[in-house]
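Entry:
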Amino acid sequence: MRVAVLGSLNMTLVAEVERLPPPGETALGRGFSLVPGGRGLVQAVAAARLGAEVALFGKVGNDEFGRELLRVAKENSVDISLVEEAPTHTGAFVLLVDPRQEAVSAYTPGANAFVDEAYIQKILPHLSAADVLLVQLEIPLASLAFALKRLPRERPPVVLNPAPPQDLSGLPLGRVDVLIPNAQEFRTLTGWSGSIEELERAGKRLLAQGVKALVVTA
């Protein structure tokens, strides 16, 4: 199976702290790690490890983080031949985590914000030739909408992970075959109260926007 993944590549910088500091205070760290990620890269690596033929499409910066993310993708047999460099830094998360796993974070999209219509136009034949297309919301929504609209009639099935959750009204949801939010994302998208009784009604509100199938994960 040929899987195309259009999405983000990010480096996450994780500092473990005894407690989360209030504004103006510095917390003493107990540990530090760099975690390669970005929803696009994570999906691509997971699909490749399951045996799929995977191509990843997105952008990184000309820096050590970008090179490390590409190394991880290549090491996992992901095709990165059309991942491009952007004139900025690689996307990054900065995360402070305390012993209870409470966290505060900051995200700078960096190169992910440079996934524009010109780039989409260049990679469109490759997206269209896949057996399935995986997308998320860590690239500009307008660029994702452009990609979905420009896919040909005989297009691959499109699977959208709506993360981080945001207003989907700008997307042509009629071109999304499977929407896969987790429970928290589903609440954000639909206003679901969390009750089993309301679950079906909330799901139908999303399906009414054109999505063909909905899968809510834990």
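The chain has one domain: 2-20+29-214.
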